Amino acid sequence: MSAPKNMIVAQSGGPSPVINNSLRGLVETARDLPEIGTIYGGWHGIEGVLKEELLNLSEQDPLEIALLRTTPAAGSIGTCRYKLKEHQNQDFDRVIEIFKAHNIGYFCYIGGNDSMDTANKVANIARERGLDVTGVGVPKTIDNDVGDSEFKLIDHTPGYASTARYWAHNVQLANEENRGSCPADPVLVMQAMGRKIGYIPAAARLADPEREMPLLIYLAERPISIEQIADQINDKLKSNGRAIVVVSEGLKLGDIGEVKDSFGHTSFSSSQITTAQTLINALNSKGLSVKGAARANVPGTDQRHNMMFASAVDLDEAYRVGQKAAHLAASGEHGYMSTILRDEGPIYNVRFDKVPLPEVANSERTFPSDWITKDGTDVTDDFVNYCKPLIGQDHVSVPVVDGRLRLTRLKPIFADQHLEPYVPQADRK
Predict the structure, then answer these.
(1) Which residues are noted in the entry as substrate-binding (predicted)?
(2) Which residues are CB-contacts of 423 (< 8 A; sequence separation ≥ 6)?
């Protein structure tokens, strides 16, 4: 058997409540595989790889690695929004130099579509230049937009179920607020993440599968005017006296002063005004069909880092895709993403498999149009049946010490730097 080669694992894009459990699954599995030597974490994603900032994960206390299970977001090894573009030849040259300098034979990237594209490009270029590097992707995104609309590449992405659970519970809590305060504040508008795809706002329906709440849900996929929404809300007020409205952040209701990230995606939390604020401004300006005012609730990034609402199902599956990725890497299964596929039948069950990275990188899932009701104000029972098993039944137990959450704190043990300092191409002025 040849001498083991080292591994780099890195993360990219927005975090999730369970992203660290995929990292944990990968690290705990890889450290016991004889084909894999030292495991490094790219500090803040591919940017850390370019800067030769490689956190030694093999040397960390196993307890701290275990605590990744209930440590949300990406504070452990960091993430980034740095895109490796085709013309950035110096960046690709630098990655190859890093791989050579640190005897890297495995490159695993945790993220969404753009991250899968990066994983595929990096590993392929390494191979083209004579390096024996296995590239593997690990899926992550709260938006659930990785893969295809037929659910053949992946059924759902780790991270989505926990954010869906967040919305299911928060709409229940908001309903209690709205019931009590409706004489003064009859309309509560809640804004959910999801730039172009409606899986997150759709999860609000899980708060009320029997459809007893005065709940209206608007997805970015179904264009509508403020005037139409106002009329529908006022109809709901006339029949129920109150309304809870969930809108996708990407619903086009006017100019919000969009701010773009390096991938060209809108960063709604950084934009000048929110969709929810645009809507309540219009509602309060026009006036409601009952007395009182509309209020807005925009939770922002809380929905992707709140471990208190995490799904136990999601945590388990996030670990398992990380585990699967480690085995794919050790077996030399280059150019694949570990995936979750749902078995047919009435009982929820999944299996963990692999799909080609190029197919994932070049695909974009859409929300099924037949899962949106004809009037565009709700989602159907088919969506509820798809999503309900994902959010699980039990609350996740998070360790607490002296009244504070006990989160992972990795030691700053970095690999020795062998190369000259480097500034990533896109960061140069």
Answers:
(1) 141-143, 193-195, 249
(2) none
